[in-house]
Amino acid sequence: MSSLYPFLYSETTDLDGVLAEVRQSTVDKVHEIVALRRTVAERDSQRMLDCATAMAECFEAGGKLFAFGNGGSSTDAADLANLFLNPGGDDRALPAVTLTGDIAVLTALSNDISFDVVYARQIAAFGRRRDVAVGLSTSGNSENLVRAFDEASRRGLLTVGIAGYDGGKMAELDSVDHLFVVPSASVHRIQEAQTTVYHALWELTLNHIRALGATEHIRDNRATHDRSWSEQ
Amino acid sequence: MQDHPTTVVDLFERREAPLHRLADDAGAIADTCHAMALRFHRGGTLRVFGNGAASTDAQHVSVEFVHPVIVGKRALPAVSLTADVATMTGIAYTTGLDEVFAHQLRQLGAAPDIALGISVDGRCGNVLRGLTVARELGMLTVALVGGDGGSIAATSAADHVLVAQSDDPRVVKEVHVTTYHILWELVHVIFEQPGVLTPEVVA
């Protein structure tokens, strides 16, 4: 190391000491996230099963899933939609879309109206009864999520919220049917546990659909669902 | 957790062993952070890439560095190579999917940069190509892979290879999220130690 970076040793700073601190920090963070996931499992196991059952019923009825969130949570929304739509292996593909992916739509709505409506307007355009709306926020306070949940609820969608800290505004809404709050003060640990929550919801939803043996049934219902939409 | 449904308990327990193995890699993570901090110090940009779920990780990493969640941390230059759909589909159509990252790195990258490739199974041809080209250009190369590490780990395609040791792609992703959160935070810890990175000047 000293031959690669001789200048590091030209100062009084103790590089080995800093690297030792950094190594210990990694071990500490691993312990934090392991403990946090255990807390989430303790608190929400049955609620995750109930939510996955409701989601499976929506898919069975021909519904689609919409996912949304801001910043890091927008990448979770994209990952979540991608996981349902294209899970790979032998797992069943299900219709899911992220509302964060179309830059033309996002910038048009932000420029012409407000960033607060970017998800609500898309829910209004695409959403219908028996669809599923999943919103992710670490703070639980994002105004555009609050509006999206209200719009989704009004239209009869199943609404699922994944939040952090104490749940923020999302914990006060009547429009969120299933709310999962990851209780931590660290945005990073919250995001890590939230990823597990939606991975778990996906796995449990597929388990439930498999148990129903509903593959063909879903396809038939989706055709009916789409037809009834176009006739409205 | 005996009172809770077995399926959910099993699902959560599946996450724990791979994380403990990540803690065993604390030395390799510290070395990676140190090398990354030196590149940022030289004015390098972090360039991140991956496919599918890992493409969303690439974007998560870029927002993490550019817009830190912890108030007071400086913004560091980081770009995802997966966000521009015109570029992605354009290169994939004209040259092939294997070149989508390598082409962008060749045209947009420079020697002090850091190339971070993410591949859940370690077998993504375009991630391997990206790392290979980045290394030829003199960039620092870092790979986050999973499973047995695949061809990326087997060929030592990157200067620093961190393996999330699980066969479940979802668990691999979760370990990767924790890994890049740690990389971000500890790059800053090293950055903030006076003297560690001197005498060079931050661009």
Give a short synopsis of this structure.
The complex is a heterodimer of chains A (232) and B (203). By secondary structure, chain A is of the alpha/beta class.
Order of helices and strands of chain B: HHHEHEHHEHEHEH
Strand order of the largest sheet of chain B: 2-1-3-4-5
**Strand order in space, largest sheet of chain A:** 2-1-3-4-5
The name of the CATH topology of chain B is Rossmann fold
Mean pLDDT of chain B: 93
Low-confidence segments of chain B: 199-203
Structure characterization notes:
The complex is a heterodimer of chains A (232) and B (203). Chain A has one domain: 3-Layer(aba) Sandwich (Rossmann fold). Chain A contains seven helices and five strands, in the order αβαβααβαββαα. The model of chain A is unreliable at 1-10 (pLDDT under 50). Chain A is 57% helix and 11% strand. The radius of gyration of chain A is 21 Å and the shape is globular. A five-stranded parallel beta sheet of chain A has the order 2-1-3-4-5, sandwiched between helices. In chain A, strand 1 (65-69), helix 2 (72-85) and strand 2 (96-98) form a beta-alpha-beta unit. Chain A has helices spanning 15-60, 72-85, 103-112, 118-126, 143-154, 187-212, 215-230; strands spanning 65-69, 96-98, 132-136, 158-164, 178-182. Chain A has 232 residues and is α/β, with parallel strands linked by helices. Chain A starts with 14 loop residues before the first helix and ends with a helix. In chain A, 48% of the residues are buried. Chain B is α/β, with parallel strands linked by helices and 203 residues long. Chain B has a single domain (6-191), classed as Rossmann fold (3-Layer(aba) Sandwich). Chain B is 52% helix and 13% strand. Chain B has nine helices and five strands. Chain B has a five-stranded parallel beta sheet, sandwiched between helices. In chain B, strand 4, helix 8 (150-154) and strand 5 form a beta-alpha-beta unit. Chains A and B meet through helix 1, helix 2 and helix 6 of A and helix 1, helix 2, helix 3, helix 4 and helix 9 of B.
